[in-house]
Specification:
By secondary structure, this protein is α+β, with helices and mostly antiparallel strands. The protein folds into 2 domains: 285 residues, Aminopeptidase (3-Layer(aba) Sandwich), CATH 3.40.630.10; 120 residues, Alpha-Beta Plaits, CATH 3.30.70. Helix content is 33%, strand content 23%. The chain contains 13 helices and 18 strands. Strand 4 and strand 5 form a beta hairpin. It is elongated and about 85 Å long. The structure holds ligand BES and manganese (II) ion.
């Protein structure tokens, strides 16, 4: 006789029971500064992988720490009960660097609660994603109604360079009917979301040179273009006067139906008074289905040390977010052409690609998506989830779509608009986190029901 699937009431009680332990383990993970970027101490990423592996072993999973030339990922699996579907649960254990520590109100790697939020680097992105998966497993205990394969990546924030190889090497282990990617955001505190499109990304460096070496700015200034003025002028051609991206050859479209009121958007973005918005059209289109372009950094003399000399060379990092449907290789070629074509005053321009990633669109219909929406509605006490796009990128979703074309990909997440992922004072809303954990447990129960109906 097979054990019956746990009821909503049982799962509710079980998740409540598990939350304190889940919170404590989340805090332990936040204390490990596992940053995959070059130049950081990668033994911390190893520690982080080991800590995740132990958490998964304690859930009764068979666990391996795997790598394919990059940082370690953790794969944990438990076979499906006879006839039940298998679900892949994805999250990442690496985190972003913390940036300027003086901007943090508390130590980024010492989690603290303030006003219902847990502060710390990775408290939301994406260690809470890992713990939401573990919360669901713990709630079921030995009554897990589906097979699971947890895939906890170790270099997502650094571009997932070795992920394609990892996926190819472990394809059979990872194959599943449903994929839950807990690395996105909810629509608001109190309003869940299912993410149905993400933008792609092209990051590149553009270096401008006008002189062989620096020269006295009084002796040569006037006829001689300095590289920094030249670079800034070139960067200024990347938008039109209205703030739309001016690079020819990038695609974009309209179509989002969600209403994102401008005053809410301005507040969530923390725009200071008087600053206008870039571009035209609906805010959600500008965020989700049109390209965006930003200058992320410039290498040039620091102002405090800048001598009266003409700068011979200067370099900027440019980041383009690509609309769903666009192609990163084509987009990079378009950007490179633009930067060469608009080079002011005959300056030498060199463009190099840092990394790119594909956008994606998810056709979010069918029984597994219905199961997810119903789980969300229950966990948020009757509030329906909103279908959203996001402006951020999870490039390997496109790879999953190619590798596992039959699988339903559910992009969920623990963040809310106030989470400040990637910035100082990142935080997790603990009340919402409890709902995310419950939603995931309910989702697995529903997936089991749908799966067993499909496959008698
Ligand atoms: N969790 C984010 C992706 C995301 C951002 C989802 C905003 C929902 C809203 C993820 O960890 C991330 O930051 N991805 C990088 C990808 C890049 C390194 C290829 C990003 O978007 O910058
Ligand atoms: Mn993330």
């Amino acid at each position: 006789m097979t054990t019956p699937i746990m009821t909503e009431a049982e799962l509710h009680a079980a998740v409540q029971r598990e939350l304190p332990g889940v919170r404590a383990d989340l805090e332990r993970l936040v204390r490990i500064p596992g940053i995959a970027f070059e130049g950081f101490d990668h033994t911390q990423v190893e520690r982080s992988a080991e800590a995740v592996a132990q958490l998964l072993r304690d859930c009764g999973l068979e666990v391996d720490i795997v790598r394919a030339g990059g940082q370690p990922a953790v794969i944990g699996r438990k076979a499906a009960p006879a006839g039940a579907p298998t679900v892949m649960l994805y999250a990442h254990h690496d985190v972003q660097p913390v940036g300027d520590r003086t901007l943090w109100e508390s130590d980024p790697f010492e989690p603290v609660e303030r006003e219902g939020r847990l502060y710390g680097r990775g408290a939301a992105d994406d260690k809470a994603g890992i713990m939401a998966h573990i919360a669901a497993l713990r709630a079921f205990g030995d009554r897990l109604p589906v097979g699971v394969v947890l895939f906890i990546e170790g270099e997502e924030e650094y571009g997932s360079d070795s992920l394609e190889r990892l996926l190819a090497e472990h394809r059979d282990t990872l194959e599943s009917d449903v994929i839950v990617i807990a690395d996105s955001t909810n629509w608001d505190v109190g309003v869940p979301a299912l993410t149905t499109s993400l933008r792609g990304i092209v990051n590149c460096f553009v270096e401008v040179r006008t002189l062989e070496h620096a020269v006295h700015s009084g002796m040569f200034g006037g006829p001689v273009p300095d590289a920094l003025t030249t670079l800034v002028r070139l960067l200024a051609t990347l938008h039109d006067d209205a703030g739309n991206v001016a690079v020819q050859g990038l695609t974009g479209r309209e179509g989002a139906t969600v209403d994102y009121p401008e005053d809410r958007f301005r507040a969530e973005a923390s725009l200071v008074e008087g600053v206008g918005l870039l571009g035209t059209g609906k805010i959600t289109d500008r965020l989700w289905t049109k390209p965006a372009l930003a200058v992320l950094g410039i290498d040039a003399p620091a102002t405090a040390e800048a001598p009266n000399a003409l700068v011979p060379a200067a370099k900027a990092k440019v980041s383009v977010r690509l609309a769903p449907g666009d192609d990163p290789k084509k987009a990079y070629a378009a950007l490179r052409d633009h930067l060469h074509r608009y080079a002011p005053w005959g300056a030498q321009v060199q463009v190099t690609l840092e990394h790119d990633g594909a956008p994606c669109v998810i056709e979010a219909s069918g029984p597994m998506f219905d199961a997810a929406r119903s789980a969300f509605r229950t966990a948020w006490e009757g509030t329906d989830p909103v279908d959203i796009g996001v402006g951020g990128s999870i490039p390997f979703i496109a790879t999953f779509q190619e590798m596992f074309p039959e699988a339903a990909i559910l992009v969920t997440g623990v963040e809310d608009p106030h989470a400040r992922a990637h910035g100082p004072n990142e935080s997790l809303h603990l009340g919402e986190f409890a709902r995310v954990c419950l939603a995931e447990a309910l989702l697995l129960a529903k997936v089991a029901e749908v799966g067993s109906r499909r496959d008698p």
